[in-house]
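User: Hey, quick favor. My workstation is busy. Could you predict this chain's structure for me?
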Amino acid sequence: MPTKIQISAQFATSLHSPEHIVIAEQLGYDRAWLFDIPHEGPDVWMMLALAAQRTRTIGLGPGVLVPTLRHPMVNASAAAALAALAPGRVAVAFGTGFAGARALGVPPTSWAYLRDYVIAFRGLLSGYTVNWHDRRIRMMHPHGHAPARPIDVPILIAALGPKGLAVATELADGLFTALGATGFASQFGWAALALHGTILADGEALDSARVRAAAGPGNAVAYHAAYEFEGDLTSLPGGDVWLNTINQTPAEERHLAVHDQHLVGLNPADTAAWAAGSWKVIPQTTLTGSARDIGRRIRDIGTQGVTEIIYQPSGPDIPGELEAFVAAARSATPAA
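Assistant: No problem, here it is.
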């Protein structure tokens, strides 16, 4: 187990994200990541820039950027601006696009496209002239428009399978992963694992209204992922109910039904599945339990090579969720 696991926060990007990041900094979180989900939140770079102006120490970055949403020059320019506002605090994570692509009705980015994109992105920040779609492009920002190149921004890549692992091994400074996948973590010096969940009070039931609000969105991701990755939904409690509800939406708009409220709340299918017992798997699909349970699970995660745990709070009391989680996490990790 590493001497210290970094404890970071991740937020479904909202107009409140800058103030939530301020709170995370005050509580001692190491980094704050914001989702790139333009179909249900404001621009990720805008909210990170506001957070940069209101904070001093916490790391900042988009996690994860979806390459097909923007030209590489747009993301490179935005990353450069954030690096100027928060020197030494910026990192960027890329992925092929789960909700960020599928909610728009398009397939995820291919790994070949993502590889070319990351090469171009890094080259631009380094001050090189790079090839992009048979065109030569370069950051030509004069003094005062961006930091001088090269601009050092660490890059993480979200990967769950061998193709992604190959790209991450070749190009990334670290691995960004979710859905409990830790199998590749030990191969990287920086391995970040994104998790959802909540700290249970003594005797608190998993199907309580508070747990539904705080851990329900994270639990629902397991159903969204099983659907998108063609898994066996019927193996999950209420999975057949979830699927039947989704299938009531016409096929041309079904992607909207699947990703409605993704990572924020429960959509109609998630709500129907909850009533049918989806809450029963919350301890497996999220990091939910007593403070002692969470501390033990964090220690176990550390033995698998994870160096950064990224916690996403949900529900009406984001500050309270952040405070409870970091207290449990501190009990599990030694001081730096």
